[in-house]
Amino acid sequence: MARLEVKKNMKIGIMGGTFNPIHYGHLVTAEEALSQFKLDRVIFIPTGQPPHKTTGKLASPEDRYLMTVMATASNSHFFVSRIETARKGKSYTIDTVKELKFTYGESATFYFITGADAILEILTWKNPEEIITMCKFIAATRPGYNLSRIEELKKKLFGINANPQVTKDSIFIMEIPALAISSTDIRERIKTSRPIKYLLPESVCNYLLKNDLY
Ligand code: NAP
């Protein structure tokens, strides 16, 4: 499929994250979602200014965008968008999904893929009642994650939103062993001069070291 081709009834994965930095856990998550949910493409969207507090050093939106481009360049189903890094002010997911709906049309189905810990906070996001009707969620977890918290969240969401579009299939859980890798750990390793090789693509590793990002 040509890069910008937009067809009817597309299934689009929206890979939302700070990607500070992007690593193999993120890439395996996106590939698994592409395969399990038969998606046409996955669009990685690095946040501009995260709406919530980020612990540790946050690389600039442009650096996080560039590292995401480097990491995904060889996959023909992966794309990277500047929707959030180019937007002024905080990066709200509702604004992003609305923009993508405008581009891909009403026939498209969206799957918002992100970490389970982030999804658990969805009730504190901007317009949670609306967003849960506009896309399905894929909560990526590390092995051993306490899944009962996601089940609790589902119950709460049905409670606040009687919309029939909100079903048990509004949130899927995907366990990804590679998510034992984490951006926090990579930043910590850099600070303490421990190796980060093989945790993230070599191009990303070279870029962040060369530019002294963390
Ligand atoms: P975070 O709190 O930094 O991350 C929470 C956990 O999820 C971390 O363990 C993180 O691991 C993991 N994670 C993050 N993105 C992931 C992905 N795409 N695939 C797999 N695991 C992932 O969360 P964040 O990255 O800043 O935000 C996640 C998404 O939620 C973003 O798109 C953000 O814009 C959205 N969000 C929206 C609102 C709002 O609209 N008000 C509020 C909060 C978050 P790593 O640290 O290794 O990545």
Account of the protein in words:
With 214 residues, the chain is an alpha/beta fold. The chain has one domain: HUPs (Rossmann fold, 3-Layer(aba) Sandwich). It has 8 helices and 6 strands. The protein has helices at 24-36, 61-72, 93-104, 116-119, 128-134, 148-160, 183-191, 202-210; strands at residues 11-17, 41-46, 78-80, 109-115, 136-141, 171-175. It has a 6-stranded parallel beta sheet with strand order 3-2-1-4-5-6, with helices on both faces. The chain is globular, with a radius of gyration of 17 Å. 35% of the residues are buried. The mean pLDDT is 92. It binds NADP nicotinamide-adenine-dinucleotide phosphate.
Compose a concise summary of this entry.
With 214 residues, the chain is α/β, with parallel strands linked by helices.
Can you lay out the helices and strands and say which pair or pack?
Layout: E1 11-17, H1 24-36, E2 41-46, H2 61-72, E3 78-80, H3 93-104, E4 109-115, H4 116-119, H5 128-134, E5 136-141, H6 148-160, E6 171-175, H7 183-191, H8 202-210
Parallel strand pairs: 1-2, 1-4, 2-3, 4-5, 5-6
NADP nicotinamide-adenine-dinucleotide phosphate (NAP) is lined by residues 15-18, 25-26, 29, 47, 50-52, 91-93, 113-115, 117-118, 121, 125-126, 140, 179, 182-184.
CATH superfamily: HUPs
Shape: globular
Mean pLDDT: 92
Question: What is the domain tally?
Answer: 1
User: Residue share in helices?
Assistant: 25-40%
What's the total number of strands? 6
Question: How far is the first residue's CA from the last residue's CA?
Answer: 37 Å
How much of the sequence lies in strands comes to: 15-25%
**Helix/strand class:** alpha/beta
Low-pLDDT regions: none
Return the CATH architecture. Answer: 3-Layer(aba) Sandwich
* Assigned CATH class: Alpha Beta
CATH fold field value: Rossmann fold
